[in-house]
Design brief:
This protein is of the alpha/beta class. Helix content is 32%, strand content 31%. The chain has helices at 12-25, 37-43, 61-70, 87-90, 105-122, 166-173, 215-229; strands at residues 4-8, 30-34, 49-53, 76-81, 97-100, 124-129, 132-137, 141-147, 150-155, 158-162, 178-182, 185-188, 192-196, 199-202, 207-208. The strands form four sheets. It has a five-stranded parallel β-sheet with strand order 2-1-3-4-5. Strands 10-9-8-12-11 form a five-stranded antiparallel β-sheet, with helices on both faces. Strand 6 and strand 7 (132-137) form a beta hairpin. It is elongated and about 60 Å long.
Length: 240
Amino acid sequence: MNLRIAVCDDEPIICEEMKRNLLNYSPDYQVDLFDSCSKLLQAGCCYDVLFLDIEMPVPDGLQTAKLLREKQFGGHLVFLTSHPEYMPEAFKVSAFRYLCKPVEEEVLLEVLAAVEMELAKKRKVVLAEAGCVCAIEVTDIIYVEAQGNTTVLYLKDGYQAAKKPLKYWAEELGSSQFVQPHKSYLAALRHIRRIGPEGIVMDSGCIVPVSRRRYGNVKKAYFAYIKKYAGYLVLPLDKR
């Protein structure tokens, strides 16, 4: 998932370390660094996620967060601080998380996974077909099937035909949430119930075929998804 992220901290070492860990997690992230809240406010703060140090020169992190919320900033706000006593004030501005410095990489990755999951729940794709326009929540898409030059999106409550090739949906939906088990199919990782030789059993009961060549990659993608977003213990893969 491509996220626009800002890190605002007056300690250069903290900023650089955060940026390094963020890009290690996903090279697709856009990460901007700010060493003062004034510079952050001037930038407009059009970000999906903001990591904001509380103990900053005036305006400090809390004052800046209040100003941003007044300006309708709707991104995920994550405070950084060495003083847990600020926590009650932090949540008055709808903070998503509160991280104590020095930030542990494992904790940071948990926050990023939680942010991506929250954004995925809200994401929609818009279709304009036969003179009609409809918005479909990405989390409602169970799988996509190519049928000739068109595709069909199978949803929780029905299906929707689209004059878009499968390649379009693969790029639009992204590899972090969907996997391509067959040249004619995309399957939503969140809706997979089981992967076996007969195919992928989705939580709707439908079976999506898996080509022998893609079987191993599909299992790896599914286990990576579970580990990243659900925190389950994943056993080592066999080599089949």
